[in-house]
Amino acid sequence: MTGKFAYLPITVFILLLAAVSSCKKDVPLEENNPGPHAVKLQVPGNFPAAKQEPDNPLTAEGIELGRMLFYDVRLSGNNRISCASCHRQDLAFTDGVALSTIGVSGKKLDRHAPSLFNLAWAKTGLFWDGGSKNLESQAFGPLTIADEMHQDLLVLEAELKQIPDYVSRFKQAFNEDIKSTNVVKALAQFQRTLISGTSRYDKYKRSEAGASLTTIELQGMNLVNSKCKSCHSGELFTDDGYHNNGIDATFSDDHEGIFQGRFRVSFDPNDIGKFKTPSLRNVIITPPYMHDGRFKTIEEVLDHYQSGIKISPTIDQLLYQNQGQAGIPLSKTEREAIIAFLDTLTDYEFINNKKISNPNE
Q: Buried b / exposed e across 317-354, counting CB within 10 Å, b at 16+?
């Protein structure tokens, strides 16, 4: 035996050892291993049950870490772009432009940045063509693609390891050192908490005190139910499916088939020209519209469905609402009512919620 205990009488040493052992037992387990704290998703009363993710359960530590990463420009190769650069909270986590050029390469993207909310209910894939099965795998795309964030994942890990706060937070959330796999897990956890369910419509549906819709808004709700609900269904206002809604008659295979929609993933000829149904929630504040942002206003969208549908072999038969012809006939009054109702789906509490905003502001 060496060191400061070498010359103590054996009885004193035993007593000292017992005291040290006793002190260790008095330390709460959570102080030694704080561990992540499980969080239950807060589902609005009028929503369906949310999809569970056993491989990446929600924790308070994981969600907060994901929030920090979502707003951190270090996730991009040039340290200038964050996830929030293309997904702004004030625009329901979209960017307000048709095709962004904000990526590291400066090149115009081929698709419009989708809004990010109610993703805990996404069951049929992400991206406009469903090319990613879940939020975890989806995140690797924008992180690494040259025209978006263009980040080397090993470099990202090295950068984050230089920040003591991140080192501590990754340990708390995942009990591991910083890894890119846990970067995307944290981002996914945060994004699953982006729930938009506090619009005027929601409060009306839940019969909350003082909640009501006007006559024209109720008329619009009935029109949406009768003319649009086949695709924009349920309380989420999307069937989470893929449809050819007649915005094109031909579908080029340029750019690795990105203009061919779901076919690019499924290789099923019946999926050519089909793109994922976006939610109607927050639609008034998320122009432009469609997978390429071609329509600048909601009026242009209604014009398309009323008289601008282009026929192709995979055109959705649900669009044939005009006496057997493609199109959805709408009077001026009906259009006004639909727009009035869509406005009730704007969730101002969601876009101003400080709990999901930039933690550094």
A: eebebeeeebbbebeeebbebbbbbbbbbbbeebbebe
Tens digits of pLDDT across the chain (361 residues) = 444 333 334 333 333 334 334 433 443 434 455 679 999 999 999 999 998 899 999 999 999 999 999 999 999 999 999 999 999 999 999 999 999 999 999 999 999 999 999 999 999 999 999 999 999 999 999 999 999 999 999 999 999 999 999 999 999 999 999 999 999 999 999 999 999 999 999 999 999 999 999 999 999 999 999 999 999 999 999 999 999 999 999 999 988 889 999 999 999 999 999 999 999 999 999 999 999 999 999 999 999 999 999 999 999 999 999 999 999 999 999 999 999 999 999 999 999 999 999 998 8
Is 23 annotated as a binding-site member? no
Q: Is 304 annotated as a binding residue?
A: no
Residue identified by tokens 């969600």 is 63
* Residue 290, C-beta contacts closer than 8 angstroms, at least 6 positions apart: 112, 247, 275, 301
Tell me which CATH code domain 200-345 carries. 1.10.760.10
**Same CATH topology for 60-196 and 200-345?**
yes
| Single-letter code of the amino acid located at 151 | Q
Residue appearing with tokens 């005190």? 209
Tokens of 157: 């890990």
| Domain assignments of the chain as residue spans, ordered by start | 60-196, 200-345
pTM equals: 0.89
Helix/strand/coil for 259: helix
CA–CA separation, 118 vs 99, rounded Å? 23
Give me the residues paired with residue 195 across strands: none
Q: Is 228 annotated as contributing to ligand binding?
A: yes
Tell me the C-alpha distance between 265 and 128, whole Å: 11
- Looking at residue 90, its amino acid is D
* Secondary structure E strands in the chain: 242-243, 275-276
Task: Check the CA dihedral 19-22-26-31 and report its sign.
Answer: positive
CATH class of the domain comprising 60-196 = mainly alpha
